[in-house]
Design a protein that fits this description.
This is tRNA-guanine(15) transglycosylase-like protein. One of its GO terms (biological process) is tRNA modification. By secondary structure, the protein is an alpha/beta fold. It has a domain of about 270 residues: TIM Barrel (Alpha-Beta Barrel), CATH 3.20.20. α5 links the parallel β9 and β10. α16 runs antiparallel to α17.
Length: about 550
């Protein structure tokens, strides 16, 4: 069971911020724009309102730290507004170390996030972790920490949430992480447990309600997903109603809906491969030479497996339209654009952009695609980024992105957007570092002459990043994460500009769909640059990583 420090019990009566979602335009399924507003209590010292336009993104953490970022990097990245903390990585200690943090905003204070700029959410499990886990039980969820698997009960999770006081809390969900497909009995258990654990978190115990996001259960079954959504909308009676009073149904206490694609991606791939294996092989003697119905018919079995869009639509169809929709573990910008166009997703995670930085890829794409950005030479599609491990960048002394200008290259007449990241637009110091009052007096004239305006240094080049990657310098990944997050932010900014730039919603949706098609025609949707970079990353890790000296000695003996 959860054990909290004495201060944790005292914070149970604290006031939580209020989260509201304003849908400016949009329908049940299709592109939409809105605003996610977090209003903090008036007695908090920080700014009372955080306003995030949607579609937008959140970024995850590893043990509460954004990968490769220091606190200064987080504060300098203007595009980062929502940060998610996976609490399972702290469960090796009982009670978990973050629960000892005192204050009115312990989650922000412990990890050093700015409560006036950052919405910080708390989930038990890392939504990007799809590793096979021990099965959950009726009264616990299996979570992974550095000392193995821990069993977390709903009472434990509720205690952690009330102690840490996140801006948004994710309810526990019984997501099967074993190999698909899952039986009807297993899916029924998943739905019932997820609904019961949500009800436990919604029990009133604070002056203001928690902002709770629910993971949409149901796996790869559209009927199971609809059943879970209907369970959220059902009117409660008896003891169930008394437990969550004054809520009449569970959905009234839900602030938003979350879809974890990590498990869905692996399940859909497995089911599609099984469907293909079970499809009958056409008779070679009667195989037609043109595409006819006899060729399509053997593959009709594949249509029994629902698509990702169909699964999300099945979950959202019975639910209210005016609540935010969050999707984690998207794999590419193409998938982001399709989910906005076909489903109407509001928030995505930036995990794929961080993973790109891990393997040395600097993202380089823009939306909407300018007329000058046609397909590359030889009518090949453009890569979505640059594999900076590649030897061709060893002497490439240009900025990281072709689609964006560096800060020092910006002019008043330029139509090309500027990448604001610390790699493309590093800011030079505009004032001296003062060590004493004498320094202040001697440089007072410098402060009065108006020269303290922002000045940009030349950008870091691809050749420099190539050098850093091959020498295992950590700063390479820091610069790449900053750049990739800025490119992702620019993508979603472009989406919002198109959707909000037309008063007629139908016209905006039509123009957006046309721009998505053009993006798919220009940029490589197979993300082949990622596969190449991953192989190069493995080669460099083997050559420079742990055990290098032993391998070199063994190689010399063979010679």
């Amino acid at each position: 069971m959860a054990q909290t420090q004495p201060g944790g019990a005292q914070r149970v009566g604290s006031r939580f911020p209020k989260l509201t979602f304003i849908l400016d335009q949009g329908k049940q399924f299709g592109p939409r724009v809105g605003r996610l507003c977090l209003t903090r209590p008036s007695d908090t010292p920080s700014n009372h309102l955080i306003d995030i336009p949607t579609p937008n993104f959140l970024i995850g953490t590893s043990r509460g730290v954004i990968p490769h970022f220091s606190r200064d990097h987080v504060h300098s990245a203007n595009g980062i507004s929502w940060i998610n903390v996976s609490f399972e990585s702290f469960l090796e200690q009982t009670p978990p170390v973050p629960t000892y943090q005192a204050g009115s905003q312990p989650l922000h204070d412990f990890f050093g996030f700015d409560s006036s700029r950052h919405i910080v959410s708390l989930s038990l499990r890392d939504p990007l972790d799809a590793r096979e886990m021990p099965p959950n039980g009726n009264s616990h969820v299996s979570a992974s920490c550095m000392r193995g698997v821990r069993k977390v009960t709903p009472a434990d999770w509720r205690s952690y949430v009330l102690t840490m006081q996140p801006d948004i809390a994710f309810a526990l969900s019984d997501t099967p992480f074993t190999a698909a497909p899952h039986s009807q009995k297993r899916m029924t258990k998943s739905i019932e447990r997820s609904a019961a654990w949500l009800a436990d978190l919604l029990r009133p115990s604070t002056p203001t309600a928690l902002n709770v996001f629910v993971h949409m259960a149901g796996g790869t079954s559209t009927s199971a997903r609809r059943a879970f959504s209907h369970s959220l909308m059902e009117t409660l009676h008896g003891l169930e109603a008394n437990a969550v009073k004054p809520l009449s149904c569970l959905d009234e206490g839900v602030a938003g809906y979350a879809f974890d694609l990590a498990a869905l991606h692996s399940s859909l791939i497995l089911q599609n491969s099984e469907s293909l294996a079970q499809a009958p092989t056409p008779n070679a003697a009667h195989t037609p030479t043109s595409l006819s119905s006899s060729m399509i018919e053997p593959l009709s079995f594949l249509s029994l497996t629902p698509t990702l869009d169909e699964l999300l639509r099945a979950s959202l169809d019975p639910l209210p339209i005016a609540k935010p929709r969050l999707v984690t573990d998207v794999r590419s910008p193409h998938e982001i654009l399709r989910l906005i166009r076909d489903v109407g997703v509001d928030v995505f995670d930036a995990g794929w952009a961080v993973k790109a930085a891990d393997i040395g890829v600097a993202l380089d794409f823009i939306f909407p695609v300018p007329s000058s950005h046609d397909s590359g030479p030889d009518h090949r599609k453009r890569d979505v980024g640059h594999n900076l491990y590649d030897a061709k960048y060893a002497y490439d002394f240009v900025r990281l992105s072709d689609a964006f200008l560096a800060g020092c290259d910006r002019t008043s007449s330029s139509q090309t957007p500027v990448c604001p990241c610390v790699a493309c637009s590093p800011v030079a110091l505009t004032s001296p570092i003062y060590h004493s009052k004498v320094d202040v007096q001697s440089h007072q004239a410098h402060l009065d002459d108006g020269m303290s305006r922002e000045q940009f240094s030349p950008p870091f080049t691809r050749a420099y990043l190539h050098h850093l990657l091959h020498t295992h310098e950590m700063s390479a990944h820091t610069l790449l994460v900053a750049h990739n997050v800025a490119v992702l932010d620019a993508l979603l900014t472009g989406v919002r500009a198109i959707l909000s730039g037309h008063a007629d919603q139908h016209e905006a949706a039509t123009i957006f769909a046309r721009e998505v098609t053009r993006f798919e025609e220009v940029y490589d949707g197979d993300m082949s640059v990622f596969h190449t970079a991953l192989e190069n990353w493995k080669d460099v890790k083997h050559a420079r990583g742990k055990g290098r000296l032993a391998r070199e000695a063994q190689k010399e003996k063979k010679v």
